[in-house]
Write a sequence for this structure.
């Protein structure tokens, strides 16, 4: 039986609110957080040590693409703001790039399409146990960050999305190694067509060396930050904060 992440959150909240409150108080203690996340840091460090920072994931032939690319996570943000953007074919959508950058930027869908493009046929591996192969196209995230000019001290890239979880925008983050990896792109096309809504239109992150929940959909903001301490509950992502998924989901 596959338990959905939403179901896990709801079930846990209903059956153990008092316990969760106690755990939450413990996990906010610096010493407890260091112990809990030590294993994750070791995992990330070991993988970084054993693999080249620019090592590519396998890419596939066009005929190997999945006949249907199953969506992960939200299928439609369903907010009035997103609905208005969708009704206008995302002509008014803008992707803001800010935080610790020298030149804050704003990109329309047309702007993203005018940048140097990368197309790649890769496999999406979901934490729930399924995978799918598709062709993605978009500019490299690293090129966008270079255009904005990263400031000294920036260590992470945070993504804020249009879909809401618990009444707040979905969020994710990656480090600079993955941000500047050649296969990390801001994808606006899937299988030679504009992204379907269910797959993250108008733009989503593809960070190919990590599991699917790191591939944030419905992007609205990208921010360079020095620390994840002020992002959600401090673990750098919605599922990491609420279901203790690993922040580093390398594959």
């Amino acid at each position: 039986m596959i338990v959905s992440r939403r179901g896990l959150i709801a079930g846990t909240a209903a059956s153990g609110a008092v316990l969760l409150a106690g755990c939450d108080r413990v996990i906010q203690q610096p010493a407890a957080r260091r112990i809990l996340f030590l294993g994750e840091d070791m995992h990330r460090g070991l993988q970084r040590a054993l693999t080249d920072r620019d090592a590519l994931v396998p890419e596939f032939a066009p005929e190997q693409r999945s006949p249907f690319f199953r969506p992960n996570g939200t299928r439609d943000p369903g907010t009035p703001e997103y609905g208005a953007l969708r009704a206008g074919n995302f002509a008014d959508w803008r992707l803001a790039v800010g935080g610790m950058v020298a030149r804050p930027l704003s990109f329309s869908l047309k702007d993203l399409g005018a940048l140097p493009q990368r197309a790649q046929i890769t496999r999406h591996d979901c934490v729930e146990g399924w995978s799918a192969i598709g062709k993605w196209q978009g500019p490299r995230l690293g090129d966008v960050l270079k255009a904005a000019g990263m400031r000294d001290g920036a260590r992470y890239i945070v993504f804020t999305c249009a879909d809401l979880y618990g009444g707040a925008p979905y969020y994710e983050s990656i480090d600079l190694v993955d941000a500047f990896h050649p296969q990390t792109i801001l994808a606006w096309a899937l299988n030679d067509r504009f992204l379907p809504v269910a797959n993250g239109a108008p733009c989503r992150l593809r960070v190919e060396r990590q599991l699917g929940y790191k591939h944030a959909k419905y992007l609205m903001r990208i921010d360079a930050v020095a620390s994840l301490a002020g992002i959600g509950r401090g673990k750098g992502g919605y599922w990491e904060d609420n279901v203790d998924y690993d922040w580093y989901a390398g594959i």
About this structure: Residues 30-50 form the longest helix (21 residues).
